[in-house]
Amino acid sequence: MKKIMLFVLALCLCFTAFGAAFAETAATEAPSAEKPAAEMTAEELSQAAEEAIAAEDYGKALKCFQKAADLGNAEAFYNLGAMYHHALGVEQDDVKAFEYFQKAADLGDATALNNLGFMYEEGVVVEQDYAKALEYYQQAADLNDAYGCASLGDLYRRGKEVDQDLVKAAEYFQKALELGADAPEILQAVDELAAALYEDGKAAMDAGDYGKAMEYCRLAADFGYSEAIKEIGNLYCYGLGVEPDDDKAFAYYQQAADLGNIHAVNNLGNCYLEGRGVEKIEVEAVKYYRTAAEQGVAAAQNNLGYAYLNGKGVSRDYGEAVKYYTLAADQGFAAAQNMLGRCYEYGLGVEQDYSKAFGYYQEAAGQGNSDAQHSMGLFYLNGTGVEQNDEEALKYIRMAAEQGNPEALTSLGYCYSEGKGVTTDYGEAMKYFQLAAEQGSASAQYNIGYSYRYGEGVEQDYGKAVEYFMLAAEQGFPAAIFCVGDCYYLGEGVEKDLAKAAEWYQKSLDSGYKADKEDEEHLKAVLGDEYQQK
User: Mean pLDDT in the chain?
Assistant: First the structure.
């Protein structure tokens, strides 16, 4: 930031102040134009000087200010310094300017104190001395000088010969604004400070220091920095360092959006989609997504893809889903690249193409997307679109599992249970199944049930087997639904009950379960002709 008060704005500001003071004086006791200078008060002399400056009679102004200064008027000393700096009626002389500023400062003139701080900071006719600059700025700020506060804040913002302290900088800039500082240089510095506070807040968030993240984002938000306001919304939305509060999250997103933050507009869409802090209205969610997507927000384009893929707020349209996923993927948005992989893998809105699916998974996996890493692992495990390779499968599945991806944890357990790329180890398999099941993975719950049913890695326990099969079945997992029926048919962990077995068997078929030869024998035995008709 260019120095704030300096001398560029000094005359204008100081003379404006004189004008205001003398307007009040004139209303009650306007001095006679013929009144001798020797009989004038310091205030009257200063008014005469201002009138002379307006008429560009700098010689007369200089004499009037000098006489006012001889009467001990601090502002007259200040303006004499300003005239010498700007060479108004005199030769430019910063040495004299400094002397007059010093005299004004000794009389408590805050603007002069601020300018002395600048001269010491920049080394103007004095040896550069940041300690003295800080001292003078502090004195000006203590006198509630708006520009002294801003100068002090800027010193702390830049960390020039003082320890950088963005919190102190924010305190002084906030005070400067409250006192009416509005010079473009100040407003620019405030913007730069707000951006720095936000970046430090984001860094704290990335480091898991959510308390500091909130503190710095709030400071930036106080200056109207929309990214920080949006980030506070995120902290409340996800309960990071604070109690989750959907109402507050929505309010902050709305505030940021009102300031033109297009990413906050996308977040408002999420709130409407999920009914967080506002009534759930999927159509409204799509409206917000579309607004943000049209301005190129990749996350919003991805969300529109999701809406079309799943018929949320719009009619299901796989072609439109692919269109928006592609827009986001072209911007390098990993989640969209992963979903394009899914579309190509299953032929949703595009012709099924395992090679393209693998390519998109690879792009997303390269950015650390755990779902894509898991999908790559499964492609290698099953030889889908690539040559089958258990070692490569294990590598990618483990990558995803290390990020806590529940389906990848389940697949890693499967690798250990089946010896895929690793030595068979039922104990390790059960460990990973348990980690995934704790996150609610139905496939992991099914595999734990299977392990207890057949005693793989644990002592055989039909009761526990039924317990985990039931957990997975409640989530609609077809194999688990079948196994619940099987347990009722065989009386494993539950009392044998053919009626219940028939009920669960039928549910498994309705959910799309594909029976093998042994399963078919059980189905025929219980469902009889009804199964034959299927």
Answer: 91
- The CA distance from 445 to 477, in Å, is 10
Res. 38: pLDDT tops 80: no
Alpha-carbon distance of 340 to 386, in angstroms, equals 18
**Residue given tokens 């020797």 in the structure block:** 38
* Element holding 331 (H helix, E strand): none
Alpha-carbon distance 71 to 398, whole Å?
84
- Is 259 domain-assigned? no
Q: What is the distance between the alpha carbons of residues 166 and 276, in angstroms, rounded to a whole number?
A: 34
Close Cβ partners of 205 (under 8 Å, ≥ 6 residues apart): 213, 231, 235, 240
Instruction: For residues 525 and 235, give the distance between their C-alpha atoms in angstroms, rounded to a whole number.
Output: 57
Which of 112, 143, 174 represents a domain boundary (last residue)? 143
In a domain, residue 52? The reply is yes
Burial of 95 (0-12, 13-18, 19+ CB in 10 A): exposed
18 pLDDT above the threshold of 60: no
Please answer whether residues 294 and 304 qualify as being in contact, where contact means their C-beta atoms are separated by less than 8 angstroms: no
CB-CB contact of 329 with 338 (8 Å): no
Judge residue 461's burial from the number of C-beta atoms within 10 Å of its C-beta, 0-12 exposed, 13-18 middle, 19 or more buried.
Answer: middle
CATH number for position 473 = 1.25.40.10
372 contacts 364 by C-beta, under 8 angstroms: yes
When divided into structural domains, the chain yields a total of 2
Contact 65, 79 (CB under 8 A): yes
What type of residue is 427?
A: G
Of 110, 143, 176, the position where a domain reaches its end is 143
Q: 420-444 pLDDT, tens per residue?
A: 999 999 999 999 999 999 999 999 9
Q: What letters, b where the CB count within 10 A reaches 16 and e where it falls short, cover 503-523? A: ebbbbbbeeebebeeebeebb
pTM of the model: 0.81
Q: What is the residue-wise DSSP string for 43-106?
A: HHHHHHHHHHHHTT-HHHHHHHHHHHHHTT-HHHHHHHHHHHHHTSSS---HHHHHHHHHHHHH
Q: Is residue 138 part of a domain?
A: yes
Average pLDDT (76-94) is: 94
Cβ proximity of 363 and 374 under 8 Å: no
Query: How is the chain split among helix, strand and coil, in percent rounded to 5?
Result: 70, 0, 30
Give helix then strand counts, H and E, for the chain. Answer: 29, 0
Range of the domain at 490: 434-534
Q: Which residues contact 109 (CB under 8 A, 6 or more apart)?
A: 74, 75, 77, 78
Query: pLDDT digit string (tens) for 342-383?
Result: 999 999 999 999 999 999 999 999 999 999 999 999 999 999
Residue 82 located in a structural domain: yes
How far apart, in Å, are the Cα atoms of 103 and each of 107, 216, 393, 526?
7, 40, 80, 106
